[in-house]
Amino acid sequence: MYVAETMLLTLALEIVRMEAPTCIGFDLHLLPGPLRWQNWRIGKLDVGVEDYGAARDKADEMEAARNWIMVPDGHPLDGQVYGREQAARW
Question: Contacts by 14-20 with C-beta closer than 8 Å and gap 24+?
Answer without folding.
Answer: 15/58, 15/62, 16/45, 16/47, 16/55, 16/58, 16/59, 16/62, 18/58, 19/51, 19/54, 19/55, 19/57, 19/58, 20/47, 20/48, 20/51, 20/52, 20/54, 20/55, 20/58
